[in-house]
Design brief:
Largest sheet of chain B: 2 strands, antiparallel
Helix content of chain B: 40-55%
Number of strands of chain A: 0
Distance between the termini of chain B: 42 Å
CATH topology of one domain in chain A: Rna Polymerase Sigma Factor, Chain: A
Radius of gyration of chain A: 19 Å
Order of helices and strands of chain A: HHHHHHHHH
Strand content of chain B: under 5%
Strand content of chain A: under 5%
Helix content of chain A: over 70%
Structural class of chain A: mainly alpha
Number of helices of chain A: 9
Oligomer: heterodimer
CATH architecture of one domain in chain A: Orthogonal Bundle
Chain lengths: 188, 292
């Protein structure tokens, strides 16, 4: 990433929505505000570092600017953002795997921390449920994990199909299969 | 129509919870849930599993999200830099070459054009010589099983008006095929037990275009087709739905075209010899599981 040390952050933040910006720039900034966190969360769930995920997200929104400036399709820009992020993350992860082994199990580690429930019994019960859930999630095929995470970020089935390049039926079957596994784990 | 004596499948419950059923189907599911405690309880369990997953998803990742301020400032600066750069035009880029780079570029373009002409001139005769007579025409070959057997699956429609078809946006119509029907279709096509997971039961004429949930309108579509796959067919259905609802194509014509030869219909309505977007890139990735 470029260094911005020579300019103060508040000064830069103030220019984010400055009237000097073009309409497309303002639009991209609005998209950045709305989708930066969901995209960052989705990117982090692939096990890459926060720094790498931030880099990916910035590239995604710069690509959005070029996309809009070239007057390309504006249909379902949310799905477009996730699709570009998905592909960028996979490329980034593949490049990183040549340097150091990256696994996606890291992202669920924090979920195994003690749950702040009101009393020890409830806390124990909640932790057991979380452990069972995480155990199921860790063995899911990547495609099923992606479907689930994208759905958790609010994407509709058609958007998920477009992000992952699979059919609508495959998305609904994947989610049904996964939820079935989570239910069985919870009952056991 | 749902049978009141049979329970809803997990698939139907999930589609209902996610708001992915057609209005008609959703109403039938709601009616069933209000009458059936068994399905009502399963729906609650399903929703609870969704809540648990969302909690874990956020618990695991929200703590890692850095504050937006510095990120926004950095992005804003990069965006400003990018915005002042002129749009890259391929024509302008071509003429930007100078000196040795231009000579090199001309050479490359020349070689490329020559190889293209050569391929056109000798490609087809060479294929015919090596592999026998092949049909003329450019584009990918049609893989096995991507089109249904017309004798088993000629396509079937219900009486439906344009307003019925267009009342529901195409993305809201996800229809679940009951397991019993799925089994019957797989048997008809002679698909053995161990290969069942390789197929998706797909509608030849989509419900959003008036297709019915009948043996005559359902066939096992292979997941692994690299070119003409279920996703490409989804795109065709979406295009036809738009064309029908905008009055540009007659509903009956759309139904006939997709049932006669959906790949031909794709080529016709997209004016393309091959799918505009393909999923082969992801298909390769699907085979690799995460090492969690």
């Amino acid at each position: 990433m470029e260094s911005i040390d020579h300019i103060s952050l508040p000064a830069l933040a103030a220019t984010a929505f400055s009237p000097d910006r073009s309409e497309i720039e303002c639009e991209v900034m609005r998209f950045f505000e709305e989708f930066r966190s969901p995209l960052l969360r989705y990117s982090l769930s692939f096990g890459i570092s926060v720094h790498d995920a931030e880099e990916v997200i910035q590239e995604v929104f710069l690509a959005l600017f070029l996309h809009l400036r070239s007057e390309k399709s504006r249909k379902n820009l949310r799905g477009w953002l996730f699709r570009v992020a998905h592909n960028q993350v996979l490329r980034k992860r593949s490049a990183l795997q040549h340097q150091v082994q990256v696994t996606s199990s890291d992202w669920m580690g924090a979920a195994l921390q003690a749950d702040p429930s009101p009393n020890p019994e409830e806390q124990l019960f909640a932790n057991l449920r979380t452990q069972r859930l995480v155990a199921v999630l860790r063995v899911l095929p990547e495609i099923d994990q992606c479907c689930l995470r994208l759905r958790a970020e609010g994407l509709r089935y058609r958007e998920i199909a477009s992000v992952l390049g699979i059919s609508l039926g495959a998305v609904s079957m994947s989610l049904t299969r996964t939820l079935g596994r989570l239910l069985r784990a919870d009952r056991s | 129509m749902l049978n009141e004596n049979s329970h809803l499948t997990d698939h139907e419950l999930l589609l209902a919870a996610d708001g992915e059923l057609s209005a008609h189907r959703a109403k039938a599911v709601r009616t069933h849930l209000s009458a059936c405690w068994h399905c009502h309880a399963r729906m609650s369990e399903l929703e609870s599993a969704i809540v648990d997953f969302v909690r874990v998803h956020h618990q695991a990742l929200d703590g890692e999200l850095p504050p937006i301020g510095p990120s926004r400032a950095q992005f804003s600066a990069r965006l400003s830099d990018l915005a002042v750069k002129p749009k890259a035009s391929s024509v302008r880029a071509f003429f930007r070459f100078t000196g040795a780079r231009r000579a090199c570029a001309y050479l490359c373009y020349g070689l490329f054009a020559a190889s293209l002409v050569l391929a056109l001139l000798i490609g087809q005769p060479l294929r015919s010589f090596l592999f026998g007579h092949a049909p003329m025409g450019v584009g990918p070959s049609v893989e096995d099983g991507v089109e249904p057997n017309p004798e088993l699956t000629p396509g079937a429609t219900r009486q439906v008006s344009i307003s019925d078809v267009c009342a529901v946006p195409h993305e809201e119509v996800v229809v679940d095929v009951p397991n019993s029907l799925r089994e019957k279709i797989l048997r008809e096509y002679g698909i053995v037990e161990k290969r069942k997971g390789d197929y998706e039961i797909d509608f030849l004429i989509a419900p959003r275009l008036g297709g019915t949930e009948d043996l005559q309108n359902l066939w096992p579509e292979p997941y692994a087709s690299p070119v003409w796959n279920a996703r490409v067919k989804d795109e065709l259905e979406e295009r036809l739905h738009e064309l029908v609802c905008s009055g540009k194509v007659n509903l009956r014509t759309a139904q006939n075209d997709i049932s006669a030869d959906w790949i031909g219909a794709y080529k016709k309505y997209f004016n393309a010899d091959q799918p505009i977007r393909t999923s082969t890139q992801f298909g390769a990735r699907r085979r690799t599981n995460l090492q969690l």
